[in-house]
Amino acid sequence: MEEKFDRGSALTIFKTDRHEDLVALVLAFVIAALVYFLV
Amino acid sequence: MVYTKRTIWPLVIGIIMVGYAYLVQSGNMAPLIKFLNTGRYAGEMLTLGYAFGGVAIAAGLWHLVAAPREGHADYYFSTIAGVMFIMLVAFIVKWGLDPLMANWGRAAQPTLGFNFASVMNLNYVVMGILAGIIVVNVFKVPQWAENGVRLSRLGLKSGVILLGALYSFAELAQLGKLSVVMIGVFVLGSVWLVLIIGVRRSLPNSMTGVLSSGVGVCGVSAAVAAAPVVQAKSLEIAYTIGTILLFGVLCMFLFPIVGKAFGMGYIQFGAWAGTGILNSAQVAGAALAFQPGGIETLKVAEIFNITRVLFLPIIVLWLAVWYVRREQAAQRTVQQVDAMQVVISKFPIFVLGFILMFLLSSTGIFAPARHYQGSYFDNSEKALMKKDRTGKEINNFLKAEEVATLQKELDKVKSSDQKAALTRLIENKKIMSEDDDAMVRGVINSKALSKEGTAVLSKAHRVVRHTAAKIAKFRDLIAWFFTFGLVGLGMQITMASIRQAGGQPLVIGSIVGVIKAVGSLIVVLLLVAETI
Question: Do residues B271 and B226 both lie within one domain?
Answer without folding.
Answer: yes
